[in-house]
Amino acid sequence: MVPRLLAGKSLPRRGGEKSLDSQFKIVAEAFLELFELLESYAPSWYAEQHHHRALTAWRVLQKSKATR
Q1: pTM of this prediction?
Q2: Given 13, 16, 27, 49, which is the most exposed site by the fewest CB atoms within 10 A?
Q3: Rounded to whole angstroms, how far apart are CA atoms 3 and 63?
Q4: pLDDT in tens, 22-51
């Protein structure tokens, strides 16, 4: 899902092309930070379903880190 602001637009690139591995690391790091914030602050809209989806994604990332 692309934010509405960026839908249909190419994302700006800094410093040339990055490898897929380095892009994955950036995305994983951002997700983990957001996951921690959501778990800490638990906003009212953050339902149990959201928590379970995020936890599943977190586990996938942890497994991925272990195999690298």
Answers
A1: 0.66
A2: 16
A3: 28
A4: 898 999 999 999 999 999 999 999 999 999
